[in-house]
Amino acid sequence: MKSIIATTITIVFIALSNAALxxxxxxxxxxxxxxxxDCLNCHQIDKKIVGPAWKDVAAKYKGDATAQDxxxxxxxxxxxGHWNDQxxxxxxxxxxxxxxxEEIEKIIASILQL
Length: 114
Ligand code: HEC
Description:
Blueprint: H1 2-20, H2 25-34, H3 54-60, H4 67-77, H5 84-87, H6 101-111
Helix pairs in contact: 2-6, 4-6
The protein binds heme C.
């Protein structure tokens, strides 16, 4: 029993420190994979595929204090219009259920630190 508690505490600690240190490209990718998000079908860190490169997203919203909340809402609802020059007006699909809002919040926080 003691070892189960110790293991659980260790896992929680690792999970928390991963969230706190999610400031690199590989951490961002790991957050998406752990959340089983479909993001990487359309996004890469430093290259446009269907959607804009996440480094370009970070650059566009640098210094914008509202970006975190706005972008979380955008990923949940989907939509178009901010990257038409790169996408030809193609929309992002909505993500109402998966990843969860908490997971999307972590992914966006990590993207904004790229
Ligand atoms: C089907 C393809 C597709 C998938 C899947 C997808 N995206 Fe997107 N994403 C796009 C497109 C296209 C845009 C550009 C939208 C626009 O022009 O406003 C975009 C834009 C964005 C933006 C910038 C939004 C803005 O308003 O500037 C962020 C951040 C983003 N995506 C994150 C994510 C995350 C996180 C996921 C996974 C949960 C994801 N995307 C999944 C296609 C996709």
